[in-house]
Specification:
The complex is a heterodimer of chains A (299) and B (403). In chain A, helix 2 packs parallel to helix 4, helix 5 packs antiparallel against helix 8 and helix 9 packs across helix 10. Chain A has one domain. Chain A has 299 residues and is an all-alpha fold. Chain B has a domain of 228 residues. Helix content of chain B is 68%, strand content 3%. In chain B, the strands form 3 sheets. A two-stranded antiparallel sheet of chain B has the order 1-2. In chain B, strands 3-4 form a two-stranded antiparallel ribbon. In chain B, strand 1 and strand 2 form a beta hairpin. In chain B, helix 5 packs across helix 11 and helix 6 packs across helix 13. The radius of gyration of chain B is 23 Å and the shape is globular. The chains are: A mainly alpha (299), B mainly alpha (403). At the A-B interface, helix 4, helix 9 and helix 11 of A face helix 8, helix 12, helix 14 and helix 16 of B.
């Protein structure tokens, strides 16, 4: 029972909330520009790198280091949108998505060069400490992941629903031309979407980088698991991203805990592919995910 | 898409080719082609022909001749590199059929290539105590290396046909990750992670292709023999693909790509078209994968990863979406560019040959160039290298009149 809660549920919710954070980043860009941002993994690992630099090399207090890394990544996101994505406005979404694949490769190589061969740590305060939750010993870092991710997503949600700029973003995602006609600077909204998304990626990168033993550049590929999350939740639904993220995280953690014992024939490290398996099963039954908007086709 | 391009080329080309004698020829002998007026077509077949102008025919012949002579002039590693170009072209054509022509974005190409490679290894490889192998002839395992991935593609296709656009891209991305896991675990077929297995034996109709042969007093090395075999396979598959795109099915592909609802209204079966696109593309991928391991040698199951898929996306995005010749140009570019960069490394100071020193290492620079070029081409010339070629051709056709 203890194992079920600490290494199954809590650990799963920890990973899952990180996925949800990344997925919300995907959804924000998708809703604003209709593009899936394949560069998100590279942005995430750069976020982990900058947190690590600010916290361990420069020596800034950890929370400040995280905020600084998020700010740096927001600027990188803004620049990427302006340089690579803005010229693609009005082109096919496929072409724009392929542009982000190109951006991913470039940024990924940059991250490789910056991080180098050695393993870095983000300098987080949690380490391997454990806390007691209703009498069950759980890792502090898992709790931190859940609290920080959900807090960040809540802030983004409040921003989208309560602020004028958030209203403009939602208007843009509904209809760009009408938003333009109402005086919304649509170009600036695109930039803002990328900045928010990149900052969230940086935060997620920090949380992923807290893994015991630190992180290296290839950890970036973990962020790709947010793709099955957004598919399961539905490409344009923030609510779906959160639910699907938590669900997939728990499923992955439970597989990791129990699969070697009960279903060893599935092979070592089967938990890594669990998100993709869930995605395929969901797509069989619901081609637009659980919460996604069905595209209306008019002849 | 390519049709429009050709149309534009034709329109601009009437200026310099105003031969007066052509008209007489047409009156005397009504033929499908009129000498001296290469742009005048009197039959649909002539208009749709692959080699629809004399210039194209001449240049294709010259190119084939050059390709046949090249291995006698080049060193063995360069010959090997050109063989890789042919193989990448086969794979690129396969991806272009589904992504370029049928408009279904696939990131799962690497998975189908791996499937082809392991099918070939099982049917054509040697059996050891670790891995199974039947040791059959290449005439059997090469078609099978295409057919097995095609069948798997056929099985996956109904699911893929249900989802659209970027949903499909992510679905096929999942295929790559699941495939990688399966390849790692199926040790008796793939050799397992970190170990891998030897590729199939290249014995075609009883002739061992890995031996040396004497031809007209010239010694054909293993690389040369393999070069010619791959070129022959490539030629057959490229022409088959070009013909496919001119057929009813090819037009159905384009209709589905341009607007699937409109295509369905016109009576094109979406499910059938998408399934066929998936199956045919997987066939090409399987053949490419089987041949690729023959050139590379032993590979581990993790080689069939997302980055290989991205390489092939680079082939078609840099080469040219929805053109067969573009796929070939793209394959040349993607395979030869890394070599060029590593040659340049000796000359240009900021490229270092070892990682960790200098600004970027050779490998990092190669990878980065890919990414940057994908972005640049999509932003500046979406038709890729093929588009650049069309621009250059039109410029010279109309020279010295720029419009």
């Amino acid at each position: 029972m203890t194992e079920l809660i600490s290494s199954g549920l809590i650990r799963g919710l920890g990973i899952g909330s990180t996925y949800a954070l990344l997925a919300v980043g995907f959804v924000i860009i998708y809703r604003a520009t209709g593009v899936i941002n394949f560069a998100q993994p590279a942005l995430m690992i750069l976020g982990a790198y900058f947190t690590s630099v600010f916290a361990t090399s420069v020596g800034v207090p950890f929370p400040l280091a995280v905020l600084a890394a998020m700010a740096v990544l927001a600027v990188i996101g803004l620049a990427t949108e302006r340089v690579a994505l803005r010229p693609m406005v009005g082109k096919q979404p496929f072409a724009a998505a392929m542009v982000t694949v190109g951006v991913f490769i470039v940024l990924f190589v940059v991250a490789h060069r910056l991080i180098g061969a050695q393993v870095r740590t983000v300098g987080d305060p949690w380490g391997l400490e454990r806390a007691s939750l209703f009498g069950v010993s759980v890792a502090q870092v898992d709790l931190a992941k859940i609290v920080i991710s959900l807090f960040a997503i809540a802030i983004v949600g409040l921003f989208l629903t309560r602020s004028r700029l958030g209203l403009a973003m939602r208007a843009t995602s509904m209809d760009q031309e009408v938003a333009l006609a109402q005086g919304v600077n649509v170009g600036r909204i695109f930039g803002l979407a990328w900045a928010i998304s990149a900052a969230l990626a940086a935060l997620a990168g920090m949380l992923i980088g807290t893994a015991a033993g630190g992180f290296e550049a290839v950890v970036a590929l973990v962020a790709l698991k947010a793709l099955p999350v957004i598919i399961v939740g539905g490409l344009d639904s923030i609510k779906g991203a959160v639910y699907a993220g938590l669900f997939i995280g728990v499923a992955e953690a439970l597989t990791r805990t129990y699969q070697p014992q009960y279903a060893a024939w599935l092979g070592a490290n089967f938990d890594v592919v669990v998100p993709y398996v869930i995605m395929i099963i969901v797509l069989v039954f619901r081609p637009y995910g659980l919460f996604g908007t069905r595209e209306v086709e008019r002849v | 898409m390519s049709l429009q391009v050709d149309g534009a080329a034709r329109g601009g080309a009437d200026v310099p080719s105003g031969g007066g004698g052509g008209g007489d020829g047409a009156r005397r002998r009504p033929r499908s082609r009129v000498r001296g007026r290469p742009q005048l077509y009197t039959s649909y077949a002539a208009d749709q022909a692959i080699w629809n102008t004399p210039a194209k025919r001449a240049w294709t012949l010259a190119l084939v001749a050059a390709v046949l002579v090249l291995p006698f002039l080049l060193s063995r590693d360069l010959t090997s590199l050109l063989t890789t170009v042919f193989i990448f072209a086969i794979g690129g054509i396969g991806l272009n059929l589904i992504t370029g022509y049928a408009g279904q974005v696939s990131l799962g190409h690497a998975f189908f290539m791996g499937l082809g490679a392991y099918t070939a290894a099982v049917f054509g490889g040697e059996s050891t105590d670790r891995v199974v192998g039947l040791g059959l002839d290449m005439a059997i395992w090469l078609p099978l290396a295409g057919i097995v991935p095609a069948v798997v593609g056929l099985v996956v296709a109904p699911l893929a046909a249900r989802v659209r656009g970027l949903y499909l891209a992510i679905l096929t991305l999942g295929l790559v990750f699941i495939g990688e896991h399966v390849f790692k675990e199926a040790r008796s077929i793939t050799g397992g992670a970190g170990v891998g297995r030897a590729p199939a034996e290249p014995v075609l109709f009883g002739v061992d292709l890995s031996g040396r042969y004497h031809l007209f007093g010239y010694i054909l090395s293993r690389e040369d023999v393999f070069y010619f075999v791959c070129f022959a396979i490539f030629l057959v598959m490229a022409i088959a693909a070009r013909n496919l795109t001119r057929s009813k099915l090819g037009r159905a592909f384009a209709a589905v790509r341009d607007r699937d609802v409109a295509a369905a209204v016109m009576g094109v079966s979406l499910r059938r078209t998408k399934t066929l696109a998936f199956t045919i593309s997987s066939f090409y991928a399987g053949i490419a994968g089987a041949l690729l391991v023959l050139v590379i040698g032993r590979v581990t199951p993790t080689s069939w990863n997302l980055f290989l898929s991205i390489d092939f996306l680079a082939v078609i995005l840099i080469g040219g979406i929805a053109t067969i010749s573009g796929s070939i140009l793209g394959a040349m570019f993607v395979v030869l560019m890394p070599r060029l960069v590593s040659e340049l490394a000796d000359v240009v100071p900021f490229i270092s040959t070892s990682p960790g020193t200098g600004v970027f290492s050779v490998f990092q620079l190669q990878t980065m160039l890919f990414g940057a070029l994908i972005v640049l081409f999509l932003v500046l010339e979406p038709r890729g290298l093929y588009g650049l070629w069309v621009r250059a051709r039109n410029y010279w056709k109309a020279w010295p009149f720029s419009h």
